[in-house]
Amino acid sequence: ATLSRIYIKKGSMLCSYGDCREGIKCFQEALMRQEEGSSAHADLLTSIGQAHSAIGKHTEALTYYNQALRIYFTKNQIPNIAKIHTLKAEALAFNQQCDEALNSYEAALLLLEDQEKQLQIHLKIGEIFDRQGYILNRQNEHKKCLDSSKIAYDHFKKALTLSPVSYTHLRAHETDSYLV
After folding, report:
1. Rounded to 10 degrees, what is the CA torsion of 98, 99, 105, 111?
2. What's the whole-model pTM score?
């Protein structure tokens, strides 16, 4: 277990310094020393997935996220399930798989109670579909562009309802500060 922790620390440090390829090797060494199906095993699979995403290998990341998700499901670890759905959605969005990304984000939203995290997910969904709408418009896919724009609008609107400080309140505060 001690050797595994050393590999995990080294892998984390390498990734934080931008050398995720070497970090992945360390995580894989640690993975071989973990009990398969354990929470620690799933955590390492998640770390390997994140390292792959950091170097732009989103398809590989998805493989690790799916493995981790299966373990977290069997252990009913709701926060980790929500986290993996969010990570999967981000990787899917990078791969231009917007509908699948939306499904993963929505799965995470169903599990999250933290309004700040919900707000962040709604913003991400809005940004993905806003970008997709822009691309579709440039490709003269106007009907699909409108559909994407509606999804973006709906999620930006949901984010506003979750925002602790409304735009109106913020504007009023800015105006008050100029009066001083």
Report:
1. -170
2. 0.82
